[in-house]
Amino acid sequence: MSPSLTPLVLVSMAALVLSLLLTRRLATRAGSGFGPLDHPNERSLHATPVPRSGGLGVLAGVILTLLAALGLGWMETELAWIGGALLLVALVSFLDDLGHLSPLVRLTAHGLAAGLLVFGALGWSRLDLPGFTLAFPGWLALVLTLLFVVWMINLYNFMDGMDGLAGGMAVFGFLALAWFGWHGGEAVYSLVCLGVAASAGGFLVSNFPPARIFLGDVGSSSLGLLAAALALWGAKLGLFPLWVAWLVFSPFIVDATWTLLARLARGERVWEAHRSHHYQRLVLAGWSHRRTVLRAYGLMAAVGACAIAAPGLTPADQWMLLGGWAVIYGVIHLKVGLVERRARMDVA
């Protein structure tokens, strides 16, 4: 039976309002003195310094949601481990926002956060694909969980480079996961996912183009950790196979992974700042931030709807769905290249 909507709606609304008010405060001249500024660099698409403490507003809403779950007596063991991993990633990321920690320190913290999830029985123990399941030995499950969580944390950070993009992915992505929790009768899971989506929505009010504030690493890395952790938790609860959560967040996973592999193939230094993601290339080719992000929202909504429908399909139809999205992403890649070529021709 689906859980009552009343506590879910009330808590998520409170998280949204808290995030919205705190983010607006941080985005004002008075509030921008607290926290760092994002100065234009080789990776960025903005021309003037912008506060990048908006992730604190998102975290405030998420923490409120966790406290509400505790107050309602809905606290689960897995949620405590997720909270610990979140605090670790958020702390290290905020310190990085303030003083640029070394990549080794950041990756070590990300690995420790993934380890907390494993200790909390949230490891990736099997691969569920349409029609068959492949169980992993313990050592491989540990390695795959570490890689998955660390990559999700970092790819979300990589994709946070344009007004409204990372916040929008959080709204669409965690709303889809919340639906699975509500439909599957998992009140705690649904509450947490709704709280994250609402917190991101409150931030998005000040981040939609033209953005007055950015997430910063403290926000983007935390959202990446939550995407990985809640995907693993939902799969453990039997709400969906893990590949469905991958599909939900595929607008980020595909772009970031494809870009990384392409840069490796070109022999580039992948640890250095760049502007090679699809969204960056579109903006550099002349698309506005608003046009690009609205197209991205359409993609996120469509892929989320397909992910919600996927568990009810036959294995054959699920493979067709995945194949269809592979084709769509291929077309998007070709479209980005076409936009770039047209822009170069216009300049010439």
Automatic annotation (TrEMBL):
The membrane-topology field of this record reads: Multi-pass membrane protein
Q: Which domain of life is it from?
A: Bacteria
Q: Please state the span of the N-terminal signal peptide per the UniProt entry.
A: none
> For binding Mg(2+), which residues are annotated in this chain's numbering?
157, 217
Recorded GO terms, molecular function?
A: metal ion binding; phosphotransferase activity, for other substituted phosphate groups
GO CC, sorted alphabetically, is:
plasma membrane
> What cofactor(s) does the depicted protein rely on?
Mg(2+)
BP GO terms, sorted: cell wall macromolecule biosynthetic process; cell wall organization; lipopolysaccharide biosynthetic process
Subcellular location(s) of the protein? Cell membrane
Q: Where are the transmembrane segments?
A: 6-23, 53-73, 79-95, 107-125, 131-153, 165-182, 188-206, 213-234, 240-261, 294-313, 319-338
Q: Which UniProt keywords apply?
A: Cell membrane, Magnesium, Membrane, Metal-binding, Transferase, Transmembrane, Transmembrane helix
Q: Which InterPro entries match?
A: Glycosyl_transferase_4
**What name is this protein filed under?**
Glycosyltransferase family 4 protein
Source species taxonomy = Bacteria, Pseudomonadati, Pseudomonadota, Gammaproteobacteria, Chromatiales
